[in-house]
Amino acid sequence: MHTSSPTFYIRDIPVHGNLILAPMDGYSDQPFRSLARKLGSALSYTEFINTLDVIHKQPRFLAERIAYTTDERPIVYQLLDNDPQRLLAAAQRLLPHQPDIFDINLGCSARSVSGRGAGAGLLKTPEKIATIFNLLSKNLPIPVTGKIRLGWDENTRNYQLVARIIEENGGQLIAVHGRTRAQQYSGQADWDAIAEIKQIVSIPVIANGDVQTVADIDRILAHTHCDGVMIGRAATTNPWIFSRLDRHQVSNAQVRQTLTEHLHANLQFYGPQRGMILFRKYASRYIQPHLPELLDPQLRLKLLTCTDPQTFLDLIAQIIP
Ligand SMILES: Cc1cc2nc3c(=O)[nH]c(=O)nc-3n(C[C@H](O)[C@H](O)[C@H](O)COP(=O)(O)O)c2cc1C
Question: What pLDDT is stored for residue 291 in this prediction?
Fold first, then answer.
């Protein structure tokens, strides 16, 4: 929820509120981020931006990834790479787009990323983390932050070391997903470890992992004493969580209204065809809580293959009356 006085600062940038939509490749695009911000998310992280796309210019793909609206400020561009100089070069090329903050992804567990030493792969090379944060924070005019996991696997949970390195080398905030790379998304996020990090650094710490309800928000804050909470998967079925509402507290009319606004924003951002196709994954998440009542598999199929926005909204009205 938005607050009038800042909840915390990222260096000199005030953040009003303690709930934040997590960066999610394929989900936290401009239309969804704007929606989350309207509902109360306090900060916007882009989906990860691969520095190779910046340097070798993938015009449309990159333009979509870095687009944001001014009401999303503060906007965080999240960078993915393990090469310090390439990260700096990419950040410098992105500066004219005026992001407020650069974040380094030290959490992506996908084999193609972490296997080559980027994302969570960086956790295996703490000396490189030091070089990256030192280089970027000294050479960029805006704050640099990091989003980490707890370590590579159970035997190398080096989160305390990594957090200290980030802070000592100029990092201005740490977001922590309470799992190791080996865990991917299995098991439970370890909130004790997040609490340990909060105790040993003085920069803001954002807690992340397995927050699904408003009660979870209060529990993770009480448990970790963190400055904020980052919510990922649960926000795709319940973006109203940023207004501190559980899904059952949201009326059908409110669901339909948000869904309609989101669809229109998607059509405008991606164009009518891609906008409709890309909206299907959100729609299937939004209607998930209504699925037990959705006995007709034909209707679901119709919805998820529909190409006309008005027909789509009519079908939604049938599913969520
Ligand atoms: C589909 C998907 C895409 C993700 N993409 C990113 C990403 O681009 N950058 C990142 O730092 N984390 C990414 N994550 C991790 C989330 O930011 C978050 O740390 C994780 O989902 C745990 O939070 P949750 O339990 O609230 O979902 C992604 C997660 C999911 C499920």
Answer: 66
- Paired strand residues for 102: 77, 144
- Does any ligand 1 atom lie closer than 6 A to the CB of residue 119? no
| Nearest alpha carbon, ligand 1 atom 22 | 209
Q: Is 209 in the pocket of ligand 1 (CB under 6 A)?
A: yes
The stretches in the chain having pLDDT less than 50 are none
Question: How would DSSP label each residue in 287-307?
Answer: TGGGGGG---HHHHHHHHH--
Residue nearest to atom 2 of ligand 1 (CA): 24
The predicted model scores a pTM of 0.97
Does residue 71 come out as left (phi exceeding 0), alpha (psi in the -120 to 50 range) or beta?
A: alpha
Q: How far is the CA of 232 from the centre of ligand 1 (A)?
A: 6
| 8-244 has CATH 3.30.300.30 classification | no
Cα(22) to centroid(ligand 1), Å:
6
Q: How far apart are CA 130 and CA 140, in angstroms?
A: 15
Q: Is the CB of 178 under 6 A from ligand 1?
A: no
pLDDT in tens, 29-46: 999 999 999 999 999 999
In the block, which residue shows the tokens 């870095």?
66
Query: Long-range contact list for 155-161, CB < 8 A, 24+ apart?
Result: 156/123, 156/124, 156/180, 157/193, 158/123, 158/126, 159/193, 159/196, 159/197, 160/196, 160/197, 160/200, 161/126
At residue 231, the 3 state secondary structure works out as strand
Domain boundaries, the chain: 8-244, 251-319
Pair 105, 80: CB distance under 8 Å: yes
Q: In the Cβ-directed half-sphere of 93, how many Cα atoms lie within 13 Å?
A: 19
Nearest CA to ligand 1 atom 14: 24
Radius of gyration for the chain, computed over Cα atoms and rounded to the nearest angstrom: 20
